[in-house]
Write a structure and sequence with these properties.
- By secondary structure, the protein is mainly alpha-helical.
- Helices cover 49% and strands 8% of the residues.
- The chain is built from 3 helices and 2 strands.
- Strands 1-2 form a two-stranded parallel ribbon.
- Helix 1 packs across helix 2 and helix 2 packs across helix 3.
- It is globular and about 35 Å long.
- The chain starts with a strand and ends with a helix.
- The mean pLDDT is 89.
């Protein structure tokens, strides 16, 4: 997995957490491109938004059924 853009390291961290939670093969490959993000620690929930977006995006590109925000949050 690779990630580019603002908060790229956090995006990779969330992707690894989701892959582990869903028992996905460690060899899955994806490229995460974060186009924009609010400043960290400014009270906008940037980490939460990023985590949910990464998890939802992974499920979509892997053809997995969608999950609720609560279920996604548990994974990441």
């Amino acid at each position: 997995m690779t990630s580019h853009g603002p908060l790229a390291e956090r995006a990779i961290h969330f992707a690894r957490l989701a892959a582990r939670a869903w028992n996905l093969d460690g060899a899955i490959g994806c490229r995460i491109e974060v186009l924009a993000a609010p400043p960290e620690h400014a009270g906008f929930g940037s980490g939460t938004q990023l985590a949910l977006a990464v998890a939802a995006g992974m499920r979509a590109i892997l053809g997995m059924p969608p999950m609720s925000a609560t279920e996604l949050a548990r994974a990441v």
